[in-house]
Write a structure and sequence with these properties.
two-stranded antiparallel sheet, 2 domains, 7% strand, single chain, Arc Repressor Mutant, subunit A, 56% helix
Length: 121
């Protein structure tokens, strides 16, 4: 299966952090909902052409953060927890920050920006 992970050799972050970010991104935007199984460590390592140890470290860090759960012999899956809401809120804040910067560069007044946002809630 193709998971379309894109890792960059020029990115200053280690590969395991890039993997973590892409998994969190998919969870935050709803591509991977709670209880969605993650690819096996071996499967993902083969696809993105990194060592098994790299993917294992990413999964261990995500589990430590409470983003995923892992059970020996059963695999890993997205947690059904408050952590998911925090990820989504963080993603929303990033989008709002970008929208605010763009609105400022376009000289859109705050009240007009708020009206635009209210259309979507």
């Amino acid at each position: 299966m193709n998971y379309n992970f894109i890792l960059s050799q020029t990115d200053k972050r280690p590969m395991y952090q890039q993997i973590m970010e892409q998994i969190k991104q998919r969870i935050a935007v709803g591509d991977w909902s709670p209880r969605t199984p993650l690819p096996s460590i071996r499967e993902l390592a083969t696809e993105v052409k990194v060592s098994i140890i790299t993917v294992k470290r990413a999964y261990m860090e995500l589990e430590r953060e409470g983003v995923i759960s892992t059970q020996q012999g059963k695999g890993s899956w997205v947690n059904d927890s408050q952590n998911l809401k925090e990820l989504q809120r963080e993603k929303l804040n990033q989008h709002l920050e970008q929208a605010g910067k763009l609105a400022k560069s376009l000289d859109i007044p705050e009240d007009e920006l708020l009206k635009m946002i209210k259309k979507y809630i």
